[in-house]
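During the second year of the project, the team shifted from modelling isolated chains to modelling whole assemblies. The rationale, set out in the original proposal, was that interfaces cannot be judged from single-chain predictions alone. As a representative example for this report, we include one of the complexes processed in the last quarter. Its constituent sequences, exactly as entered into the pipeline, are reproduced here:
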Amino acid sequence: MEDKEKTMNKEIVLRCEDLTKSYTSGLIRTKTILAAKNATFDIKRGEIVSLAGESGSGKSTIAKMILRLIEPTSGDITLNGRSIHSYKKREYYRQVQAVFQDPYSAFNPFYRVDHVIDRAWGLREDNLDTDERKEVIESTFMSIGLNPSEVLGRYPHELSGGQMQRLLIGRSLLIGSQLLIADEPTSMIDASTRAGVLNLLLSLKKEKGLSVLFITHDIGQAQYVSERVLIMKEGEIVEQGSVNNVFTRPKHPYTKELLAAVPSLYEKWD
Amino acid sequence: MKSRKAMFGLVVLIIFIVLGTVVPLFLGDPYGMNLSLMGLPPSLEHLLGTTSFGEDVFTQLCNAIGNSFLLGLVAGGLGTLIAILVGAVGSYRGGLVDRISNLITNLALVLPLIPLFIIIAAVVRGLNLFLIGVILAVTSWPWAARSIRSQMLTLKEREFVNLARMSGDGSVRIVVTEILPNMMAYIMMVFVILTGTAILAESALSMIGVSTTRTITLGYMLYWAQHQTIVPFWWNIWWWFIPPGLVLTIILTAFFVIHAGLDEVFNPKLRRI
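Output from the structure prediction step:
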């Protein structure tokens, strides 16, 4: 079992090399803002990698570049050894999906939540009939702790944040993606449901070999879910390594600062 | 329909739409002159009297209402369509397309309507109602495109747009099925306002005599009433100019009441608790 895990861990799913994104602004486009600078990292199969850093440090920019929602200024992203631009969009999105920060804006208020599932279903290659389809959807939802009759056929505002995030995770499972970009999936939901979402990611990783890029500003969550962590500051990845190494022996002053800022349960600030 | 205001306006409009579309079928020729019936006051035979040419005012009024609505529909519908195209496409694509559509909007925004119309009326021969509708549409959309653009800029940043892109949807499909439905309420209000103002604009232009002189509209009636009742001032044919003026006022009020009602329904800040 351990051997299997080790060989699985060797396979790189996603690799980013020198990923840079710059924006120009000003009247004659003279000002340049670097949102991401030379980001290099990889994600292996069945691994959760955390990308931690403060707001505006470029975490979401990296996520959007991986998701092909924005174009990098320079650098390469490869999925399973192939440049992501060599994939057709539909083919790519069959493998890479995302869960976003704000579940309330991830669902179109105009439609019932089924709309999101219907659209995502179009990415699947099999042509299941209605009954089989219903069965697949129901069993997938049950496996992530969602009661299909409680969520399907409802409008987004009738669901809780936790339910919506689970629904989005369910969506990417239905598509059958192997890499999930989770952009601060827990920052807008209740603390009590937060652990449920984190544990769901962990169990999916274990059972389905799902790879996750877990973006967060919460060091505690990064430590809880991931094996490796990337610390990002002002568009640059300043430190990366296994969670144990980075959090017990931080090298970069910013990492030290971050760790010092984590509130502890038994300490009072004075 | 949640709003009593909008409901009230709608009922008034429907009454006039019936008056303008169905009733003329049972009436005679609106242009038919009978010089033996010149300037008769309202009676049972001629509900609203006759004009100084011996035309039946009620027949003319019903036809005018129908034509004015038709013009409003053409101008309002086309204007709304242009506003959506210019406002939504440019801002969704961003970059150069957005800059160009913004430039066009700004240029159209500063076009002076009435002088432009006088020039067009002087140059174009055979101006008909449809053409006037098109010209009104072409000049009426900029403010609506502006606000559609700003709504698009906020809506396109919503995550559900990203999610749709990640479901493999193309731009057109995303704009039409994901973004525009969320603007439906606003687009409906734009349509109502553009239709109402187009009817008013055409009437104003007709009344100063720069619109079509062949099709009866409310403005056309006012134009002739003004000519024929003021020049020989002892002819006080009040039943000629009061009905179209009153109808125009009521129709426009109905449009604006509908608009205010819709605004209350869709804008929670205006909703009374």
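The beta strands of chain A are 12-25, 31-44, 48-53, 74-79, 82-83, 96-99, 179-183, 211-216, 228-233, 236-242. Chain A has one domain: 2-108+176-260.
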